[in-house]
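Notes from hallway chat w/ T.B., transcribed later so I don't forget. T.B. wanted the structure written out for a chain they're using in a teaching module, and asked if we could keep both sequence and structure tokens in one place. Agreed to drop them here.
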Amino acid sequence: MWDIILEKFNFDVSKGRKDEWKYLVNLWSGDDFQKKSTQNKINRSKCSLPPYSGTKTYARLRYEMEKKNGKAPSRVEVFLESRKRKKGKQVDAFQQNVQFDQLKEQQKEGEISLNDDDIFEKVCGAEKYGYLRAYGLGKNISEYFGGRPTKIQLINK
């Protein structure tokens, strides 16, 4: 079976190792891999605002934005930037983008007293499972917002 798949992809033996391709084809055609793949397709289809930044991570995007602007970007800014094409054009006028823009405008005019994290949570919902959205790996909710104080810390206050 693997040789048929290799022919389908125009596999050239001189450019790769045949035993590695055999392994990959067997892995990809296995039942466990197919189940995971199907579940991942379902999960990705539920995402209402997929990022368009390709393989660029949130951490890298945040670093580049900080380098360009001279200040650390908020989660809202990183989130919106990750939803733009390479040339800086917004992909679609998603409902969430409109809400972000409206709330940011109200914040600038002083109509509401929400910070960027509150705006992000209001539009996208509360954080779940310890994962901090639009921040990248290595940062969790308790590190970002500060964890709950321990009993000893409360007594010392």
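Follow-up for T.B.: Residues 58-145 form one domain. Might be a good example for the class.
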